Amino acid sequence: MSSTTTARRYIVRPAASVQGELRVPGDKSISHRALMLGGIADGPTSISGFLASEDCLATLAALGALGVRIERRQETLVRVHGAGRDGLTGSAGLLDMGNAGTAIRLLMGLLAGQRFDSTLSGDASLQRRPMERVAAPLRAMGARIDTQAGRAPVHIHGGAALQGIDYALPMASAQVKSALLLAALYAQGVSSVSEPAPTRDHTERMLRGFGVQLTSAAGRVSLAGGQRLTGCDIAVPGDFSSAAFFIVAGCLAARQGLTIRDVGVNPTRTGLLSMLRLMGADIEVQPHAASGAEPVADIHVRAGALRGIRVPEALVPLAIDEFPVFFIAAAAASGETVVTGAAELRVKESDRLAAMAAGLATLGIECELLPDGLRLQGGAMRGGRIDSHGDHRIAMAFAVASLIASGPIEIEDVANVATSFPGFPRLARAAGLALED
Ligand code: S3P
C-alpha cells in the first residue's frame, strides 16, 4: 500500500541501521495557530511549510465554515484571507474537529466571545477527552458553554460579553492557556494566565508576530482585550514531535549518523533532547540564523549506548508528546527508567501510559504502570502484535522499536498516523526502517 492511502496496520521487521538526511513535515501546533490567528487578522496571512495533516485540515475546514476564505496554493502553501477580529460568521452545521484536541480547545476559546452559536465535536477519541478544563475558565469570563458531562460535543452560546480573567492553570496545558488567550482578545480588560510549569509558547510568539501586545514573565502571560491582529507571513518549521521518532531511531541505530533538517527547536518543545542526553545520547543541534518567531535547527544524531534515568519532572511538559517514543529509548537503555508527574499522558489521543505499558509488555519489556508515569527496565525486545489504540504517536513509537526487536512488530490501527505525520511510512523506509504498510 502506498503512503498516500490510509493503512490499517504496519508490519515492521528488524532493521540493522538508519542513516542519511531527512526533513519532517511542518509543525502541527504552529499550523493550527497560524490558521486561526490568520482567520481573525486584518489582511492576508501566508503560511509556508503548513502541515497538511488530518488534524490541521480539520481546522482549515472549520475556519472555512466560519466564513474565512482560505486558498491552498500548494499542499503546504496556504493563504488565509483574514476576516478581521469581528468578521467570523456562524456555521450552520457542527464543526467536526476529528481527532484534534488542539483544534477543538483553541477554537472553544476563539468562539466563546462571538455573536453566534457554535457546536464543536470530533471522533470517538476526542469525545472521551476532557473539555471542562477549557469550558470552566471560559465560563468564569462570562461565556455560556454546555458540554456533555465535561466532554464534546461542546455547545457555545453566542452573544456573551466576556470579561478579563486572572487564572492560575491547575495543570500544565498549552491548549488551555492558548484557548484563554484567544478568548482574552474578545474580553473587556486585561486577562492573565499563570501556568504551574512552562508549556509550549507558540501562541504567545505568534500573537506578537500578528502585532498583539502581550507581556509574559515568571510563568504569567497577560494581554488586554480589544486588540486587532495584522496579517503576516509565517514559515512553519519541521515538527519537533515528528522529528522525535527519527531522533530516537538515530540514537538506537544510526551508526553512520542521521540528520534531520529544519526542525523547530523552541525550548518549550525540546525536553526530549535533554532526556536523551541525560541517558548518554550523542546529539548535536546546529541552529540556523534566527529569522521568524521560532528557532530552527538541523539535528544530528549518532547511535550509542544509553543508560536508564529518572526523568526530572520539570522536563515532562517540555516533552509531553514525545513519551511514547522516549519509552522505546528507555527499553533500549541499560537499567531502569522512571517517569513520574506525567498523568496528562492518560488524557491524550489514548491513555498513553497504559497503551505503552501494554505494548512494551507484549514485546517482553518489564514495566510497571504508575498512576502518573511508568517504571521500566531496559532489556531484550522480541517481536509481537501491538494495538496502537488508534493513537498516531503510539503507532510510530512501536515502528521505531523494530530497530531493537528480534522479530517483526505488527502494529494495528495505524490510520491515525495521518492526523500528524502524512508520509511517515515513506520517510521511515528512506531512513532504513523495514516498514510495510
Ligand atoms: C498542544 C499542546 C499539548 C500537546 C498537544 C498540542 C498545543 O497539549 O500534547 O499535542 O498545540 O497546544 P496540552 O497543552 O493539553 O498538554
Any overview of this molecule?
This protein is an alpha+beta fold and 437 residues long. The chain folds into 2 domains: 9-26 and 237-436, UDP-n-acetylglucosamine1-carboxyvinyl-transferase, Chain; 28-235, Enolpyruvate transferase domain (UDP-n-acetylglucosamine1-carboxyvinyl-transferase, Chain), CATH 3.65.10. 29% of the residues lie in helices and 25% in strands. It has helices at residues 28-40, 54-65, 101-111, 132-140, 174-184, 202-209, 240-253, 271-278, 323-332, 352-362, 392-401, 424-431, and strands at 9-13, 20-23, 42-48, 69-74, 77-83, 95-96, 118-121, 144-148, 151-157, 166-168, 190-194, 214-217, 220-224, 233-235, 258-264, 282-287, 296-302, 336-339, 367-370, 373-377, 384-387, 409-412, 434-436. The strands form 6 sheets. The chain has a 4-stranded mixed sheet with strand order 21-22-1-23. α3 links the parallel β6 and β7 (118-121). It starts with 8 loop residues before the first strand and ends with a strand. The model is unreliable at 1-5 (pLDDT under 50). The structure holds shikimate-3-phosphate. Shikimate-3-phosphate is lined by residues 29, 102, 173-175, 178, 199-200, 320-321, 344. The site of shikimate-3-phosphate has 11 residues, from α5.
